Amino acid sequence: DHQLHQLVYLSVHSLFFADPVAQMSLAAIEVLTVVFARFPSFRDSIVQECLSLAVKVPVGRRAKRYVIAFEGVRLTTFSLLLLKLLQSTCLPLDVAAGDSDGVGVVPLLAPLLSKRLAMKESLKLLIGGLIERCVLRTDRDSDARLVIAQLIQDLLQAASHPSWIAAADLLKALLAVFIHGLISGKKAEKTVDIGVREFAIRLLGELGRTLQKQHVEASRHVLSLPEASSGQDPVSDASVCFCGQTLPDALQIVCRDCGWKYHGECVGLSKKQPTWYCDRCTLRRIAVKLQQSDTFRSRSEVAVSTALPQELVFKHLILSWINSTSSTSGAALWTPPRDPSQPAGSVSSLAENIFGAEHPVHCRSYMLAQWAEMLVEACKRSQIDTETRDENTTSEEPASKKLRSCDSPVQLTDHEELLVGFLWREWTAPIERSSRAAPLVSKYAILRLHRQMMVQLLDQGRRLLLAELVAQSASPFATLRKSAMKALGELVAADVYLVREPNIEYVIQVRSLDDSALVRQMSLDLLGRLLAQAEAEDDEEVVAADNPLAAEVLPVYLKVVRGRVSDTSILVRRKAVWILSRLVIHQPRDHPDVVPVCVELVKRVNDSDAMKKMVLNTFEQVFFAESQNVEPTVARAVQLAHVVDAAALHVSQTEFVEDLLRRFRSSLGAGDAAFLETLRAWVRVLFSAFSDLDEAGGEDHSVRRAVVNTLVAISSVKPEALLDHIRPMCQFLRLDPVSATELDRWVALRVLGIVAPVVPFYAAARADRRLCNSYETVLLQLIARQGATLVRGAVKCLCLVVQHWTHHVDHVVKLLVDAVGPTQGILEALNRQDPSHIQRLSGEKCRYLCRAAYIMCSILEIVDITRWIEEAEIDSPDNGQRRAVPALPKERLRFRVVEDVPSTVAQVLLHLYDLHEAPLENTVVTCLGFFLSNNREHVKSRKLQQVIEHSLRSNRRDLVLRSLVMLHELLTTFEHAATAEADFNAKSGLKGDRQAHHLSASESAGPLAVNHLQQVLALLTGQLTVFQEAVECDAELRLAALRVVQSMDTQGLLNPYLITPAVFSLLWYGERTIEGTAARFLKRLLDLRPQLLLNRLDQALIASFNVLLERFPHLMVPGRRLPPAVNVAFAAVGELYCERFRKSKTSREQLIACLLREISKGTALSVFSERFPTLCSLQDRIEPAAGPVIAGSEKLSSPDFHRMLYGQFVASVLSSLPFQFESEPLYAIYHCDRYVDLHADALVSKGEQAPEEIGDEDPFGVCVSSVIMRVVKSSLRAEYKLDEDRCQTYEPNETKQEKAKYASYAIDQDKTETAKSSFSHETFLAICEPFVANAGKPRNLIAELSKLLTESAGASNAQRYLQILAKGEARRRGKGKGKGRGRSESVPNEEIEKGTQKDVDEEDGEDEEDSIKVTPRKRPSKRK
Description:
By secondary structure, the protein is an all-alpha fold.
């Protein structure tokens, strides 16, 4: 026995040499197999020896050196050893041939079942040890868990080969342990760590994917036993093999019976055979021969009269193939004990056939035992069914219990009798190996038969696995739900038809609305499996998937996916956009869902550059993929128009169309002429649709609006495409002043927007005098007969026509004189009136003045009057050529000119604004934008700046909104002009920004930012108390102010340091439009300068707190969660943390430290009073809404109430950060403990030693901050499953970056976000009650704080300090003791506490030598 133990030890350890030798490994496995089979008493020790080294099994890249190709499969040495050991348990070494005197359901099979029981005992011991050592390890060793994953991969590979039949039993056992022992059940939920359960679910997904794939393949290609008379018609086509390929020149093998042609390489033949039968015909011939032979006679020698069952024939073929694969020649191999009657030389020993032999004798015997057990189980079930049917029993006893209790012999059917006789004969008969016989059928057919049987054997486990994953998708833990949905996605990848099942459909719909962003993402990823799986999401090119099921199934989930386009998580939005884009491509172009889905996609254009590329790619594929060869239809043109019209709500239509056309041009691959011609075809179709709608009159106005807006956008981007339509568009401008409707006026206004950009190009391409005169006439009629809104567009077009076409300056001069002259007269008349008796202007006169202001400012926006006058003063030769710039004699200006015409108009606008009429003020503010865009020298005018400043400070909301819109448009105009000037200067080689006598665009925009930034920021934050007149800042005003600030920042006109707090505060406004715009703007600000937020974090949190109090005054209560509307803000903050701070350890630790510092600093009374003087002086608080409230909080003073609320808000922000590494929450916990040690303990000690000195302290602030720190710590520990030992052993300077594996909201690489905070408001509510009750009693507060510190004595850094003291004491005591001096030894916490207490007790001098003393260290010598 001792020698055998040594042999086992050496054999097991030889499998894991650093430089493995394949032959030695095989020899060691054979030794272990023989010992395992011959000596059952050694089986436990062999299994334990193997398990002791299981955790050291090489995995990953190292495992490649330990792979052995054995019996048709490449397996690692560890997997090969386990399979050999299990299959050797059924070797018939000590069991005689089957005897009819056996007991059980089928007495003949009793010996086989006894071997099966021995195998199950070894299997149970082996699986239990593997799970205990490799999965349930407390140190979370990932390599040990990879051993199980690698074993499962090997088993899945081996299960497809008949030589490794035990792989199926191992897989079934692992499935049962994973499902019933690690994942489900009350015991597993209580005792098994959530990380282990997540790992088990992940392995189930990988295992289920392979099982589902095999199930699909087996169901598609079922190999059945054909009838004796069945056949196939001869095939006269070229080579059409079962492989599906057609190779006319390849070797063709023709079946003699059916005439079907095969490739020689597919059937393993290198030359033609005169007589050859395919597998199908071979099976038919074998069935006939077996039926006629006496191979399957029963034990009672009763002849077989019925047809042979298919199962029996298949098993016979598999066993025959196994017998024929032996490479050892010689006498027959007796698998049972040798019969003494047989001659000694006719058989070979079992050891001879194991050592140095490739014959899988263990596989044959194991297979027979497995089939015998399956047959017995089937007999038991049939017996129970028969008894139940005959007796009509109503027993509620479960079938499994009846199955176990049924052990009496049963009456077998003919087929069962045949199977029993077959198994008995195969078990007792020797294997003749005198000459190697050829297989009855090909290896391909045998492998198909075996896989078909294995799929049936594992089908129950597959269905159980699927049901368990569906159940775990409803787990209370987010990580388990995420892992279950990911595993279900693996199964769907193997069989896309699973999404049709009701339970899978229900799971997808429910989990897509889950609280966790990662669960929602996995739900959408499951749907994405239906599409092209090889296509990466980040790829710019979009290719339609080849899966025809996607177009059928995905529309069922269309509502679910569309609902996730506006999700709070960017990952979920990105996945939803990816699915919708593919869905649109799959659907026919005339499908009714194309336009709604495209409109949803447009919403995400501004999320990121990658998202924008994806959306534009989708539109390019949908609308322009066939434009080069196919003329666009009206329906497709209308669809494109709807998409462009919807883009106006999220992005500039011009920029959107420009990006889309740029991509279309690059994908077209043709020149400018071909691209322009294709675009003109689209314009023709759009214009045709617009004309048809105008003639119909009863169509939907939304279609007309979409088509016209699209034409306007195209004219702004590519005006050349509309040259052919400049003439027919003139008819839409002929409006009857009496019968024209509002719709007609709107159409005319949009047509003017189309014509204006086309006029310069039309003049250069084809000048038509009649058309020019016609346009002049029509535009003059519009100006004379229509209102102020339509007048501006008409005047602008008329100025362009005069400037580029006709040069009829008289029309422009007349309009300008008629506008400025009478207006000056009215203003002079008003100035002559007595100031005390000035009457308000009538409505008609106000409208006239507004109209005049629009005309004069619109003319000066387009026309450079000063240059026209200068051209008239220059004598130009009369050579018959038209002037590039019209000439205007100054004498024609029949009104009083002050300096020059722009100055005169500016003075008129100032006088109009001074009349203090609301319509005139609105008009003047709007017209200032037109006027200043082309007259930049007046931007610095102090009086005009005062007009803008006064309008921004007005108490009229409409005037303030108009002022902000005007500033935004004016700054945008200057931005575009600055870009154009920079391009011009770069091409011409000029330096500087000046052109001619004008100010540059950058210089013109500067005064706007300098003079009005403070007012805009005040409107942005709502802090208007510094102004005498104030207006309530609603969402629309804040959004307009934010756009102005964005325009200023784009041109570099302001310091980002000033605006960062205001932009951050808008994240908490509760409106998605504002929050989305602010989040994108803040990302851009922090892109290269994340320190901006760190330096201004206190001001940002203060501004955010003010916004929350303003927006949700009834819901801001201590101990109550923030309203759900601000979850978007938590998501935005989490996204900022992921993209701007988490990548750098220094930046993320700085952010965490700043938030914790703000909790302690913001709750101090002196600091809070300085920051929030208004809140501190507040007498009456707003009554809170119904909900949980801290008892006695209504009696708190306003400073105490609001600083509790402020600290809770900052803690919620900190707890909402999506941490990825364990060091992040541990860093926060470390500083929480540090604050408690430095401040709370100091306050308690001071209160106990000198209570009279407490008056100078702020005990309530220290108590509140200490409570918040404790709640933050407990919340983070619960969120990330951090134990106290890990918190105590953490050091801030450690560089190890271990991912947080147990977070409820799991993190996926570097981009994710969470939409809620993990701060436990319930715990905060419970802990704060005694402190609130004793708010004005310092001694009571200190007593409550001392009690709180006593309860959490083990949850601070005290243990860390004791460890440091222990290390120092170890160094002191080890000094001078030889070689090991100075080394510190780890001491348990209990001993440290005992030692410290002993030192305290011995301070009286009883044992001074053992007490801890602080002595000055000597200076080390130079040698040391």
